[in-house]
Amino acid sequence: MTLAIATDRLTKDYGARRVVDGLNLRVPTGCVYGFLGRNGAGKSTTIKMLLGMVRPTFGRVELLGHDLAALPPSVRERIAYLAEGQPLYGWMTVAEASRFARAFHPGRWDGRKLDQILDHFEIPGRAKVRRLSNGQRANVALALAIAPDPDLLILDDPTLGLDTVARHDFLLSLIHLVQREGRTILFSSHILADVERVADRIGVLVDGVLRVDCPTDRFKEAVSRVVLEFPGKPPAFPGCAGLVQAWEVGRRLELVVVDFGDDQRRVVESLAPLSWDAASMSLEDAFVAYTRGPRRSLPVFDDGPPEAPSTATSADRGAA
Amino acid sequence: MVPTLVRKELRETLAFVAPALALYLVYVGHLTGMARPLARALAGLLPGLSGMPPDLPFIQGDFNSTLLYIGAALGIALGFRQSAWEPSQRTALYLLHLPLPRRTIVLTKLLTGVGLLLACTLTPIGLYGLWAATPRTHPGPFEWSMTGDALRVWAVLPLVYLGAFASGLRPARWFGSRLLPLAAVALPATAAAVVPWWWSVGLPILALATAALTVFILREAETRDY
């Protein structure tokens, strides 16, 4: 398996605050990778470090097999980047912005594809970029990014600030126009429904630490909500491997558990509840439950079973 | 690629260069008597526009100080516009991802800015000098060597621009410390402009300060976070 993005213990400190902590990110070639995390988790800083906009305090980055520190322009040309807010020069018209971008990709520019996208969204070439709606600007930025036929596309929260329809259109573009065999896409987002639609794999950053790095489906299937009914006040939950959260709601004890299996079942049954039920969650619910957990002891996901058993106990319980 | 970047910089700085050039032209128009009514109308805008033009061009009057005030204001505006504006609008993320070495992008900005500043400030010197060199335009004598002090002011202005560029590029905790590079150029710029030995002292001071600032800017552009 070749890697389009590989980082080695990537770390960034701002003063005394560590915003990205020893990140070992591996994004296989051809993968659509959803990069998730709450506000301030370190997603944008990581993406900026991947592209050399922010210097890491420690660690290194490889893009398309080349060390970022010595990335030649010919390789940079194969990497497209859409920063948060899709910054483009507002004083340019769409046609000027396209001519400007084309000048930097003389051998790779696909003007037909660009025109096709602009036509599809009915964006006139003479329109000033600053007069476009957020959705139109996002589509222009995407069209300009993919016109040089990049092998790696990195998008930082590309649907931020877009309304539902614009988001839908943008994702359609991403799915139909951007994806091609061998092209790798890494995008960060807060909107889990978007990620669910397009991402093969997800990574979840919690306080600068990559806690999840696995196929999207595996994450959804692995995070379960377990509800235990008791005749009276529930007993304190003793903790188990993979426990993310536990909280009481009246006579119920609710748990969020990663990889609920026989070991966890035995712990649950040892409490002798009246009844109990384990159900899988949507990606959004799983993400919310997971990232709300006790951050330092969250179970780590990768392609295999969770690496670190949770040390969460009743002391880590969230509020009901 | 570089010509495309130069065109972008020219377009983005037009709003600063055009008014400065217009002010220079009005001022030269006042000195040469070609635009006196316009100059009188704008007298409140520029102190040099009131009063009578001098008999001895470049030697009498306030040509050099007017050249300095407008040129320094243009240099500071250009420097900040070309450095601080892009990160504030986040377009730096777009610009710096273009497949060009970062050093090339920054040097292109610097050379375009210095070129514009020098061209704009040389215009009034050239026009006024040409007028003064034309017989029967004014009562006093004229030789091109009389433009020496004006040319020294002209040569020092890029240092002010570089100081502003460095201030705009350099992140700082508060505005005051951000202006340190701009404040720091005051000493070498003044020294280069006023010391009597231009070739042996003034020019070397100017060259050293310019080189130091350029190295600082290139290093800062390579190492700062965007």
Structure keywords:
heterodimer; A: 320 residues; alpha/beta; Rossmann fold; 2 domains; six-stranded mixed beta sheet; five-stranded antiparallel beta sheet; 15 strands; 28% helix; 28% strand; elongated; B: 226 residues; mainly alpha; 0% strand; globular
Short summary of the structure?
The complex is a heterodimer of chains A (320) and B (226). Chain A contains ten helices and 15 strands.
Distance, first to last CA of chain B = 22 Å
Helical content of chain A (DSSP H or I, runs of 4+): 25-40%
Poorly predicted runs of chain B = none
Secondary-structure arrangement, i.e. CATH architecture of the largest domain in chain A? 3-Layer(aba) Sandwich
Q: Most extensive interface: pair and counts?
A: A-B, 24 and 19 residues
The count of DSSP E runs of length 2 or more, i.e. the number of strands of chain A, is 15
Major beta-sheet overview of chain A: 6 strands, mixed
Shape of chain B: globular
Protein topology:
The complex is a heterodimer of chains A (320) and B (226).
Chain A (H helix, E strand, L loop, with lengths): L2 E12 L2 E7 L2 E3 L3 E6 L5 H8 L7 E6 L2 E2 L5 H4 L2 E4 L11 H9 L8 H10 L13 H13 L5 E5 L7 H15 L5 E5 L3 H7 L2 E6 L2 E7 H7 E7 L13 E7 L2 E7 L3 H9 L4 E6 L2 H9 L29
Parallel strand pairs in A: 4-9, 4-10, 7-8, 8-9
Antiparallel strand pairs in A: 1-2, 1-3, 1-5, 5-6, 10-11, 12-14, 12-15, 13-14
Helix pairs in contact in A: 4-5, 5-6
Chain B lengths: L1 H31 L3 H6 L21 H21 L1 H5 L1 H5 L6 H32 L14 H22 L5 H4 L1 H5 L1 H9 L3 H26 L3
Helix pairs in contact in B: 1-3, 1-6, 3-6, 3-7, 6-7, 6-11, 7-10, 7-11, 10-11
